[in-house]
Design brief:
Length: 553
RNA sequence: GGCCAGUUGGUGAAGUGGCUUAACACACUGCCCUUUCACGGCAGCAUUCACGGAUUCGAAUUCCGUACUGGUCACCA
């Protein structure tokens, strides 16, 4: 009995060889230096911001070098899979202007290196495993979950390293006859990789972010094929897929760093050259309870999901800017100097990436987003708010549709100037910012409208002003009039005059403006009053003053 | 516990032996501008790079040790 017999017993239907596949998936015909990257999520229907970061880096790396970026569906864990996961991933990516060159879902396939769905690559994996068995580098393991658990407990008790290695690798010592006999007896088994390393020996690994790291050699006989569905584990799929798909750069989270020895051992067993690795830092968050940094969590942190940014209505480019700043902190500066270029043109450098965990700072994102929105044209703002509201605020959407001109006008207040206002952080905050201009919201609820204000305004004075209010062409004219009005009512026409001798006046013109603003907008701050008054007109002004007065009692 | 990594201000960080009296951005504070808020302008905000020791004429930057933090140790990726 030989390894060959064992291999034939386990994989009787596998007739292709590794060489066959190498021929089917030849070296990619790309220019020198072109990078082949991939985004390889498991289809759980949830995109974590850390995964998104790696996808963005993958994409930039590929586009930057005229390489290829492909999407691979890692669906070997059938228990966690959700429907249409790939479509939804493609959708999210496209929201951010990221388009994989190669991908596959339902009946659509693009690219020559597929299938891009792991569960459809079973035969390929089996071919590689069969080879490993034939050369004596893989074996069936019949240990039950309970046995494995026992081994671990004993190791912990003896203060030994945990795992399936050395003398603990019981099934490694089985003879081929025993193995064949057990298989024939129908005992379930996994296939394990026969490791070749010595844990006490180190090798140097060059990570593109972290630089040279000394790691122990791999002596763990890890499972490479699962017993129930005969699909490979991550480690083995990574080897086969990234080899055959000719991936040059693997971008993944730092949590993978500790499995690098396994991957290197695996590549060595086949005599393949491993890809370059870019282990990106984890995205962290300060834990409220402990005050320590911790990995941003899917369960606890809403901002861990890319869905959050869509719901809040952050413009995709603002999110990209924030993400790119984590990738390379000089991104913002570069972007400022190259406003005409896209993020894919950014010369991302793994070396410059911080090697410690990064915080995704929501405050910073707000700032980036505010700045970005302030540069948009009024129509762009209108369109964006409209499409956001369509999904997340139907009544607001209706209103915007009903009054497009008025809305666009409102969005344009203090926009077309050198330094535009920065009132809008994201689309979901727009309504609150401008609600006072819509009667539908303003007259809804007195308490709510004036909740910010505590001081009582001089209604009589405002009524007097409303009487003489007229719509002027220019702001200067308008302001001259209100100055006169101030003087007539014993208010100083400028704050300076008032400051010189406050006893001479009841106040100054600025105070009248402030009162006006409070009553008209219900807020302590608002854009230019002149323009607001223009929008609501004298009638609107009177209505608002009366509304305010009524609610005072 | 083993292995690996990280530790620069309120925050994110630049920085790889002298050009650093530590860049930039966010936040914060003050002043100025202004009809208000915002925007903008100016100024302030780490005598110091977790701690201890070593190498060196010279260290945030190299080495050793300590502490703390994180990751990992699944038939999950």
């Amino acid at each position: 009995m030989t390894n060959h017999d064992l291999a034939e017993l386990i994989f009787p239907n596998i007739t292709k060889t590794i060489a066959d596949y190498e021929e089917m998936y030849p070296k990619r015909d790309l220019a020198e230096g072109a990078k082949v990257t991939r985004y390889a999520p498991s289809p759980t229907g949830f995109m974590h911001i850390g995964n998104f970061l790696s996808a963005v880096i993958d994409y930039v790396l590929a586009k930057n070098s005229e390489g290829v970026f492909f999407l691979r569906n890692e669906d070997t864990d059938k228990a966690r899979e959700v429907e249409n996961a790939v479509e939804s991933i493609m959708k999210i990516l496209s929201d951010y202007d990221i388009y994989p060159d190669e991908y596959e879902y339902s009946n659509t396939i693009k690219g020559e290196y597929g299938p891009y769905i792991q569960s459809e690559r079973k035969e390929i994996y089996h071919t590689f495993i069969k080879h490993l068995i034939e050369i004596g580098r893989a074996y069936p393991c019949f240990c039950s979950k309970e046995t494995l658990e026992d081994i671990r407990k004993n190791q912990e008790l003896d203060k030994e390293r945990t795992g399936y290695y050395g003398d603990y690798a019981f099934c490694r010592q089985l003879t081929i006859e025993e193995q064949i006999q057990k298989i024939k007896a129908g005992i379930p088994y996994v296939i394990r990789f026969k490791s070749s390393g010595d844990f006490n020996k180190k090798f140097v690994f060059d990570d593109l972010v972290k630089g040279k790291i000394e790691l122990p050699e791999n002596d763990q006989d890890i499972p490479i094929m699962k017993s129930d569905n005969l699909l490979p584990t991550y480690h083995f799929a990574h080897l086969v897929d990234d080899y055959l798909m000719r991936t040059t750069h693997v971008v993944r989270g730092e949590e993978w760093l500790s499995s690098v020895p396994i991957h290197i051992d695996l590549f060595k067993a086949f005599g393949f050259k491993p890809p370059k690795y870019i282990h990106i830092p984890l995205i962290l968050k300060k834990d409220e309870e402990t005050g320590n940094a911790r990995k941003i969590s899917k369960r606890k942190d809403k901002e861990a999901s890319m869905k959050y940014y869509e719901e809040k209505g952050y413009p995709p480019l603002a999110v990209i800017e924030a993400i790119m700043t984590i990738a390379n902190s000089n991104y913002e500066e570069w972007h400022q100097n190259h406003l005409d270029l896209k993020f894919t043109d950014f010369p991302f450098s793994p070396k410059k990436m911080s090697s410690s965990g990064a915080y995704f700072d929501l405050e910073k994102l707000d700032n980036i987003s505010k700045n970005y929105i302030s540069t948009l044209k009024k129509e762009e703002v209108y369109d964006s708010v409209l499409s956001w509201a369509k999904k997340y605020d139907p009544s607001f959407h209706e209103l915007l549709l009903k009054e497009p001109l008025r809305s666009v006008y409102i969005f344009n207040i203090e926009r077309e100037q050198k330094k535009p206002r920065k009132d809008f952080v994201n689309w979901s905050s727009v309504k609150e910012q401008i609600a006072y201009l819509y009667d539908e919201y303003f007259f809804l609820d007195w308490e709510k409208t004036y909740q910010e204000l505590t001081e009582k305004e001089d209604v009589q004075l405002l009524k007097e002003y409303a009487k003489i209010y007229q719509e002027f062409e220019t702001e200067d004219e308008w302001f001259t009039q209100i100055k006169h009005f101030a003087e007539e009512n014993n208010y100083a026409p400028s704050p300076k005059m008032y400051k010189e001798d406050p006893t001479l006046y009841k106040g100054h013109v600025g105070m009248i403006c402030e009162s006006l603003r409070h009553v008209v907008t219900g807020r302590k701050e608002s854009p230019n009053l002149f323009q607001i008054l223009k929008i609501i007109g004298q009638k609107g002004l009177l209505q608002r003053i009366e509304f305010y007065e009524k609610g005072l009692k």
